[in-house]
Amino acid sequence: MEEERKIEQLQTIEQGGRTCNEYVQEFKKVARGSGYEGRPLIEEFKRGLNRAIRRKLAEAKEPPTTIGECVRATRAEHSRRFLSLDYVIKYVTTHLQEIPQRIR
User: Which domains does the chain have, with CATH numbers?
Assistant: First the structure.
C-alpha cells in the first residue's frame, strides 16, 4: 500500500514554481520507499523538472547517468538561469534612469 502511494506520488511530482533544491528535497522524500532505482528513478526525476531545465539536461554533451549527477546538473543549470535573470534585473534597474522620461 505505502509503496503504491509512493510510486503514484513519484509519477506525478513536478517542480512547478519551486526552486531546484525544494524539488530535489521533495523528490528524495517521495522516492524513498517507492522501490524505484537506477534508470527509472532518473527518468522520473527528469520528467518532473521544469521544461527549460529538462531540455538543457537533454542537450548536454554528457547527459547525467546517475541520480546524483542529475541532481548536480539540475542545480547547476538552475543557478545559471537564476544568475542570468539577476544580471538582467540589475542591468535594467541600473540603466532605467538613462531612459528619457517621455518614453516611460
Answer: 2-75 (1.10.1200)
